[in-house]
Specification:
Layout lengths: L6 E2 L12 H13 L10 E4 L4 H12 L9 E7 L8 E3 L4 E2 L6 E2 L2 H9 L3 E3 L2 H6 L7 H7 L8 E7 L4 H15 L4 E6 L4 E2 L15 H18 L2 H11 L6 H16 L4 E10 L10 E11 L1
Parallel strand pairs: 1-5, 2-9, 3-8, 3-9, 4-7
Antiparallel strand pairs: 2-12, 4-8, 5-6, 10-12, 11-12
Length: 297
């Protein structure tokens, strides 16, 4: 057995966000200073994973709800964009690097998850090519910096799950969601609109195209706030909205549904919504971003 520590490099630093720790720190502090801590402490957040110039300000509204004084473990559930996956996968790494400081994977929880037989192992290459988890690492490091030696992360790559599998993983992870020392980060952008995304749904009654996109997204966000996994699945089937983190969101909603059966009282609220641009013609394209927080009472 090798005791070599495996590190995952910050592959998207220098392109999707700054590779300079000091510059990145200033940017994150700037965005966080504009957000209000209204729903702290969050037990789970939904936040986007695009380049920070597009979604950094939106994501801050979710990260502002994190309480580092009680958080000891951060689960990060991100969709698989490039690697075909029908289950969930765990990282091969021990350490995830960020320009701020390195984050340590919780091998105890990984061992528990591995023993269920429900997880694949992603190669380091697959891990480094995927951005959906990486884009949350600098924000996690920043939100947790006052307790940076006291927490670990649990990255989970979520594949194209069936409804049954979303329920299965939701049930499995619900015991971790029940623990106030755990934080769940659900990585998702919302509507990807335009011919380049092969999605051009347009409800003319809403006005211009970007208004139709906003109406469509907010319909989905409203259903997520109701925390009903079946309604969310039905919404996706009906409108085909290109929410790339729909499976991580589905897993969260199923975990919530499981805990509500046990009498847990929870609320999910969206705090911010943004679009990369305002689509007005069929030649335009945009990606939407939303930030929200789950609080357990």
């Amino acid at each position: 057995m090798s005791n070599r520590v495996v590190c995952r490099d910050a592959r998207h630093a220098g392109s999707w966000y700054s590779a300079s720790g000091s510059q990145l720190n200033v940017q994150l502090e700037g965005w966080l200073s504009q957000a209000q801590p209204t729903l702290s402490p969050a037990r789970a957040i939904i936040a986007p994973h695009a380049g920070y110039t597009y979604c950094g300000a939106c994501a801050a509204h979710a990260y502002k709800q994190v309480d580092p004084s009680i958080t000891r473990r951060v689960f990060i559930l991100g969709p698989s964009h490039h690697f075909p996956l029908s289950r969930c996968a765990l990282s091969s790494a021990d350490i995830y690097k960020t320009p701020l400081y390195d984050l340590r994977i919780d091998q105890k929880v990984y061992s528990e998850l591995w023993k269920t037989g429900l997880f694949d192992r992603m190669s380091l290459q697959t891990d480094e090519e995927e951005h959906s988890i990486e884009m949350h690492l600098p924000y996690t490091a920043k939100a947790m910096e006052s307790h940076k030696d006291e927490f670990s992360i649990v990255p989970v790559l979520v594949g194209a799950l069936s409804e049954t599998k979303e329920q299965e993983y939701g049930k499995l992870l619900s015991k971790y969601l029940a623990d106030p020392s755990n934080l769940f980060i659900i990585s998702s952008d919302f509507c990807h609109w335009g011919h380049r995304f092969r999605y051009t749904y347009y409800d003319e009654s809403q006005g211009e195209i970007y208004r139709s996109i906003e109406h469509l997204d907010k319909m989905g966000m409203g259903i997520i706030e109701q925390m009903d996994p079946i309604s969310f699945t039905n919404y996706l089937k009906k409108y085909r909205n290109t929410i790339c983190g729909r499976h991580p969101i589905g897993v969260l909603l199923n975990a919530v549904a499981e805990l509500r059966k046990s009498g847990f009282n929870m609320n999910f609220t969206f705090l911010n919504y943004a679009q990369s641009g305002e689509c007005r013609t069929w030649h335009d394209s945009s990606v939407s971003y939303a930030a929200g927080s789950l609080v357990v009472h």
